[in-house]
Design goal:
Largest sheet: none
Oligomer: single chain
Shape: elongated
Strand content: under 5%
Distance between the termini: 8 Å
Number of strands: 0
Helix content: over 70%
Order of helices and strands: HH
Structural class: mainly alpha
Amino acid sequence: MSPEVISDIMREALYIAMLIVSVIIVPSLCVGLVVSVFQAATQINEQTLSFLPRLLITLMTLVVLGPWLGSLVHDFTNKLLMDMPTLIG
């Protein structure tokens, strides 16, 4: 197995990991920003007010996009396992 092949596999794995994390985190960050602006405008400093909407959006994102993210990981793993004999030999 050449270093180029290992580099390509690692690049694809890191890309998939980055995609999964960003798809889950970005909506939560946007909601957190909106709630923070609301809290600053109304001077309400309640911690649960910022936590609960972010939690709900994160869970909703996982429910909606979970199958797609799972299929990405499944396809990558499947491809890796199918290509393993050619990569080793």
